[in-house]
Here is the input.
Amino acid sequence: MPINRVFSPNRYHGFFIFCIFIFSFFLDICTGVHGVKILYDAFFKEIMNPEYAPQRLNDFLSLILNKTVRVMKVLPNDSSRLTDESSLLIMDIVVEFEDGSIGNIEVQKLGYLFPGQRSACYSADLLLRQYKRLRDEKEAKFSYRDIQSVYTIVLFEKSPKEFQLCPENYLHHLILKADTGIEIDMPQKFVYITLDIFRKKQQNEGDGIHSKLEAWLTFFCRDEPEMILKLIRQYPEFKPLYADVYELCRNMEEIMQIFSKELLEMDRNTVKLMIDEMQEEIQK
Here is the structure.
């Protein structure tokens, strides 16, 4: 075999680019050019861990859902996935609240095509899991009255085109209602948060932080040092969260493994997105 085929530059081009990305990303963190991406699975689950600091996730979800909630435990995420596991997900966690309702908190790097249909499928899956569990626990005493709400909460780093048509709004609550006005309690509820639209809106308005909810969204999507300092000065309660991030970053070996995992996933996600878009164009 010709030696130029074995050591072809194109053969290792992706690997070299990957190494450059890791080094540049890690160097920016070490030199203070950027903060870490809080929404990466490893960071989010550590910083927002309900077993370690339950008040953090409680506070954020209470603001999102417009009511006081308390996370009791994290449930195993064993729902049947309808798509390939090389997905565009950054983070996916399922929790149970004090009243028995369930919340699925999901972060997408790039918004999936058909977000409504996808959310409906996973919400139905969680609802069925709750139904089976309650039916087995209560047996003959089971009633549909025992079914509690199932919340699907999706944060987009880059939102799908459906949300881009509404550039002034970054928080969307979707609740099923009858067109006649009759009151029927439907357990499936959806919340969509478009972080890219929030960030653009915040920048256009002078990088202000006007509420505790905006403080949380700033914490999740802004990694500029000046914004981190502004957030801490205005909301000092976020300082311990950044302190935990700092402690994580002190473990160089672990942090490099996190970056390697996340960047590899980003690479797969980008390829999958390109394939999806090309297939959509072909079908059109």
